[in-house]
């Protein structure tokens, strides 16, 4: 019995899509420096910096930026590959999906709260004194949204498996 795309549920396909889109978000800005509150001299100096010094993708940020989307994609692949095996589905694959997605969510929250750790303490002190702020970019927001979507899909899948189990129990 080989792989059949017809046996993969729409929730599982969307879970894989969430992981792949999260990987795609790695190439968007994840860490952004802005000098909106800085003095005019600092803003002028800031404007002359190369864009790679001001905006960083996840690949040029920290471990908590690029690992979670890759893990989410891996979870999506596992769910699609093993989700069509009925024994795996009823043995807890949707629960494993939920745990994996929640672990990714936790890693992303850690990454968000340690956002400024991309810079060492001297750099952070200098940036703060200059009025430069460090914030999350659009890629970080999208990665978080795809992760939350995967968590919601896992919950829906758990509910669907429970409903299937109840329905098959009534047929016996």
In a nutshell, what does this entry contain?
It is built from eight helices and three strands; from the N terminus they run H-E-H-H-E-H-H-H-H-E-H.
DSSP E strands, number: 3
Spatially, the strands of the biggest sheet line up as 2-1-3
Which stretches of 5+ consecutive residues score pLDDT under 50? Answer: none
The CATH topology assignment is: Butyryl-CoA Dehydrogenase, subunit A, domain 3
Number of domains: 1
Task: List SSEs in N-to-C order.
Answer: HEHHEHHHHEH
Mean pLDDT: 89
Termini separation = 25 Å
- Identify the overall geometry: elongated
Helix/strand-derived class?
A: mainly alpha
DSSP strand content: 5-15%
Top CATH class: Mainly Alpha
Radius of gyration: 21 Å
Number of helical elements: 8
CATH architecture call: Up-down Bundle
Can you give the helix content as a percent range? 55-70%
Quick one: biggest sheet?
A: 3 strands, antiparallel
Quaternary state, please?
single chain
Write the layout of secondary structure elements.
Elements lengths: L9 H15 L4 E6 L5 H8 L3 H4 E3 L5 H20 L3 H5 L2 H21 L7 H10 L2 E4 L1 H34 L1
Antiparallel strand pairs: 1-2, 1-3
Helix pairs in contact: 1-4, 1-8, 4-6, 6-8
Describe the structure.
The chain has 172 residues and is mainly alpha-helical. It has a single domain, classed as Butyryl-CoA Dehydrogenase, subunit A, domain 3 (Up-down Bundle). The protein contains eight helices and three strands. It has helices at 10-24, 40-47, 51-54, 63-82, 86-90, 93-113, 121-130, 138-171; strands at 29-34, 55-57, 133-136. A three-stranded antiparallel β-sheet has the order 2-1-3. The two termini are 25 Å apart.
